């Protein structure tokens, strides 16, 4: 079992990593502003799933495989960076529109939000660095069993990310009332686009 010190260290480190603005939380705010709470939380579920995937990779030692098959890992990085570039273009070219509170969203929009959340996390250098480089410094992964992973680390990860993400979503919903001007929306979405582009460039640079 994990000790209290390790648990608190993990919660603190993960909370800080999630709270620092990056591609994931920036996109979450932008989606919540344009689509509302439901869209925001659906995207958050995608973000969390991406984190759980990297957590599993770190815990079960698949990181070793990633380093062994460097070419495959590079290909995945390039694919993720291209997707981030596409998202950056979508945010940059977003056409400001009136913010309608309580507007219904389609299943297609929800599916798109979930997939965006998942792929953004999988292509987020900050997430990769946390689980494959920082996590082993916090927790002795060799001692993590399947039971500890399923009954402690997974619930803790979901709890922390859901809590931090909910704060960002609620803040975005408060902002919606002030984003009635086209210029304010344009600044928000273009800022999100720039962060996406910088993340994509960072991923490409790491593979060179």
From TrEMBL:
Statement: the UniProt record of this protein carries the keyword Ligase: no
Q: Which InterPro entries match?
A: LeuE-type
Q: Does the keyword Transmembrane helix apply?
A: yes
Q: Name one GO molecular function term.
A: amino acid transmembrane transporter activity
Membrane topology of this protein: Multi-pass membrane protein
The membrane-spanning stretches of this chain are: 6-29, 41-66, 72-92, 151-175, 187-205
Which keywords appear in this protein's UniProt record, sorted alphabetically? Amino-acid transport, Cell membrane, Membrane, Transmembrane, Transmembrane helix, Transport
* Gene Ontology cellular component annotations, sorted alphabetically: plasma membrane
Q: Where in the cell is it found?
A: Cell membrane
Protein's recorded name: Lysine transporter LysE
Task: Please report the organism this UniProt entry assigns to the protein.
Answer: Chania multitudinisentens RB-25
């Amino acid at each position: 079992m994990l000790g209290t010190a390790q648990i608190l260290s993990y919660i603190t480190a993960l909370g800080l990593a999630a709270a620092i603005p990056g591609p994931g939380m920036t996109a979450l705010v932008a989606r919540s502003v344009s689509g509302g709470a439901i869209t925001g939380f659906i995207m958050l579920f995608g973000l969390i799933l991406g984190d759980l995937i990297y957590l599993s990779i770190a815990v079960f030692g698949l990181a070793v495989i990633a380093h062994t098959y460097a070419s495959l890992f590079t290909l995945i990085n390039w694919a993720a960076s291209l997707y981030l570039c596409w998202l950056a273009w979508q945010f940059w070219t977003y056409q400001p529109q009136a913010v309608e509170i309580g507007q219904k969203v389609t299943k297609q929009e929800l599916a798109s939000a979930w997939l965006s959340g998942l792929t953004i996390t999988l292509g987020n250098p900050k997430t990769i660095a946390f689980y494959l480089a920082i996590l082993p410094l916090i927790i002795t992964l060799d001692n993590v069993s399947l039971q500890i992973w399923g009954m402690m680390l997974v619930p803790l990860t979901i709890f922390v990310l859901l809590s931090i993400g909910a704060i960002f979503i609620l803040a975005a919903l408060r902002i919606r009332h002030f984003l009635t001007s086209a210029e304010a929306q344009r600044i928000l979405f273009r800022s999100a686009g720039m962060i996406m582009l910088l993340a994509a460039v960072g991923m490409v640079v790491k593979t060179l």
